[in-house]
Amino acid sequence: MPPQARLSFESLLGETTPRHSTTAKEAPAVRPKGPGPQVESKPAESRPPPQPSEVRPRSTTARRFHIKRRALAFSVAGVALILIVSLAFLRGPLTLPPLSTTNTQTLTLSQTVTTQGTGPALQVHIAIAKNPVSPGSTQVVSVIVLDPGGLPIPDASVHIQVISPSGQTDAFDVSTDANGNCSHSWHIAASADNVGTFQVIVSAAKDGYQSGRANATFQATTTPEG
User: Fold this and answer.
1) Which of 44, 47, 63, 84 is 20 to 30 A distant from 147 in Cα terms?
2) What does the alpha-carbon distance between residue 68 and residue 112 come to, in Å, rounded to a whole number?
3) What is the 3-state secondary structure (H, E, C) of 162-225?
């Protein structure tokens, strides 16, 4: 008998019935590989943010001290100014003389200017006899000196200054009577230098009172007196 081919049975893994093989060994079936083992990914380690560099605060102590000193200086200056003004008021009112203006009235009541002294301030009033006046005629200046209550001051020393339009100054000294009155008259020369505005400055003084002062003006024109 001729030799019979050997029958071989092979079984694959996972098969229950053997498979008949008529040829040489068949390549074994390749099983698909399943997914490999999964590797757990570790989350990236969180690192704390870098710390900001420390900033040193600027020292402002010196500047604040400078501001305080300047404010203190202003405060001291303000207090000193208040004290000066207060002392000036305690010594009596101080009023500057008015500017020279053309006066068309015969009677001139001038503002009183007190000077430093003790006691109440004297009030001085001036009356001009002629306004305007013609050069070559006589002018009369009358003065009355009163206390703050309006009572006349007798025996007060009165100093009268007359300044002509050309700038020449004449001075006269008189005293008040029992009614506080005094006057002075003088001749105005007929000259072109005496045409214009005359200024009259009167000051009065007496013991126990603050000195008083007053100003007045009158015009000298070539127009005949009315």
Assistant:
1) 84
2) 45
3) EECCCCCEEEEEEECCCCCEEEEEEECCCCHHHCEEEEEEEEEECCCCECEEEEEEEEECCCCC
Integer-rounded Cα Rg, in Å, for the chain is 61
Q: Walk along the chain (226 residues) and give the pLDDT tens digit of each residue.
A: 555 555 454 544 444 555 544 444 445 555 555 555 555 555 555 666 666 555 565 655 545 544 566 666 667 777 777 877 776 666 655 444 444 333 444 455 555 555 556 789 999 999 999 999 999 999 999 999 999 999 999 999 999 999 999 999 999 999 999 999 999 999 999 999 999 999 999 999 999 999 999 999 999 998 755 5
Number of domains the chain contains? 1
Residue 157 lies in a domain: yes
Would you say residue 90 lies in a domain? no
In a domain, 45, yes or no: no
Within a domain: residue 156?
A: yes
**CATH number for 142:** 2.60.40.1930
The boundaries of the domain holding residue 199 are: 123-220
**Whole-prediction pTM:** 0.51
